[in-house]
Amino acid sequence: FSISNEAVVGLLKGVASILGRFPKERIKEDMKKLCLVQVSHIQKLIEENIPIEKNTKSDPVVWLDRLAAIFRNVNPIVQNGEQHPCQEVVMEVWPTLSLAFQRYSSDLRVMEHCCRCLRFAVRCVHQHSAPLLSPLVEQ
Fold this sequence. Notes:
By secondary structure, the protein is an all-alpha fold.
């Protein structure tokens, strides 16, 4: 059966919200699994130079929106001095986002969704996004 991307994004929002309440070690592991599913599709589109068909699985916007939904809705409580459980995941996702920025630089629609995804990734980890600033500036 077929499920709409809107429904998938809704499910990911719910899963991410629940994930944010898990113990920190579990958040890190499960967040990585959840994000890597989306990232692997983006990587495949870039590596295989698959032409974009809007609102299909060959549209990077589909995967970027799913990734953005995860980052936007995982909100673990992190005490001062604690490492954010999503920081490592954001750093692992960055190289793929960077490639997407390069590959789709001429496509305004995709770039808008790349920026949105990055914005939610940075918001997700707040001040723990500092290690991302240098590669981001160099981009």
